[in-house]
Amino acid sequence: MNFHNILINWYLQNKRDLPWRNTTNSYQIWLSEIMLQQTRVAQGMPYFFSFTKNFPTVFDLANADEEQVLKLWQGLGYYSRARNLHKTAQYVANELNGVFPESFKELLKLKGVGEYTAAAIASFSYNEAVPVVDGNVFRVLSRYFGIESDITLPATKKEFTELAFELMPKDNPAIFNQAIMEFGALQCVPKSPDCTVCVFNESCVALQKRKVDVLPVKSKKVKVTNRFFNYLILEDAVGNTLIQKRASKGIWHNLYEFPLLETTAIVEFDFVSTAVKNEIFPSYTIISIEECNNATVIHKLSHQHLHIQFWKIKIKDVIENGVDAYNLKTFPFPIVIYNFIEKQEINC
């Protein structure tokens, strides 16, 4: 079909030289696909190199400590991906003798591997004729064919998967999948694509009907919850501080943080002072309390906006199991806390 020929020719002339494109190694392809979920290539690339250096095989990753995995993942976000990555590595190493499943259906059984990731691994590693359907593919196909189906609906996912399969050359599915994703990433971008230089500008329905800016159709809007975090940074008589692991499910599970006072709104000094002295640290002798940053830090997650204030609390006591400044940086933290530590704002 002319569509795939034009698309693949464009890809061969414009593709980026990405390390996971130079291999059929299923371990490396799996790593890259998990890392690139909801992550830009430029952001994910250093993490890919770091993981392949520290864990050159799936056995190395399986044998690693979870905290080491989370530390290397620090800053990439969506930390459940890292936890699932580690568990899947252990399963592949221990139950499958280090060999990844070689079919789309079997890959789907792995923890953290959905239809898109399974299709990517199956086609790139094993040349199985199964289409990848992600945001890029939705965008390219909806615009080119003028499809106005709501991409948040399961029926639409099926519609686009069937269309992509029909368009795909069955003897070379890997290059088609790479090409259509790359075309969406580089040319048919979400906002203000340069259609004047597009290889499909004479046949694209959305361009002809002036609907480029409205396709694909996506009806659901993410409901954002605002949360208010007050991190309490203790400094004891010998300069040590106190941290804790987030054991509860939800954001940042198994990462470390300072003691947390969560409130329903941004709070002032008097509120924090009273809570610290009477409820949170009543056994410590408080010398001083002060807010560390002039403005509240707003950290945006996919479904939550965190309004974060850091408070430094000096105490006369010595903290049992306190952590010094050097060792503090070795723990895996959410990036917003690590950046705070790194900028030495802990010293206020």
TrEMBL record:
Organism: Flavobacterium hercynium
Cofactor (UniProt): [4Fe-4S] cluster
UniProt entry tagged with the keyword Hydrolase: yes
GO biological process, one term: mismatch repair
Record field: catalytic activity: Hydrolyzes free adenine bases from 7,8-dihydro-8-oxoguanine:adenine mismatched double-stranded DNA, leaving an apurinic site
EC number of this enzyme: 3.2.2.31
GO molecular function, one term: 8-oxo-7,8-dihydroguanine DNA N-glycosylase activity
Record has Ligase as a keyword: no
Protein name stated in the entry: Adenine DNA glycosylase
Family matches, as PANTHER family: ADENINE DNA GLYCOSYLASE
Origin: domain of life: Bacteria
Span of domain HhH-GPD: 35-186
Co-factor remark: Binds 1 [4Fe-4S] cluster.
Record's keyword terms, sorted: 4Fe-4S, DNA damage, DNA repair, Glycosidase, Hydrolase, Iron, Iron-sulfur, Metal-binding
Annotated InterPro entries: A/G_AdeGlyc_MutY (IPR005760), DNA_glycosylase (IPR011257), HhH-GPD_domain (IPR003265), HhH_base_excis_C (IPR023170), HhH_motif (IPR000445), MIG/MutY (IPR044298), MutY_C (IPR029119), NUDIX_hydrolase-like_dom_sf (IPR015797)
CDD domains associated with the record: ENDO3c, NUDIX_DNA_Glycosylase_C-MutY
UniProt xrefs under Pfam families: HHH (PF00633), HhH-GPD (PF00730), NUDIX_4 (PF14815)
Similarity comment text for this entry: Belongs to the Nth/MutY family.
Function statement: Adenine glycosylase active on G-A mispairs. MutY also corrects error-prone DNA synthesis past GO lesions which are due to the oxidatively damaged form of guanine: 7,8-dihydro-8-oxoguanine (8-oxo-dGTP).
NCBIfam families per UniProt: mutY
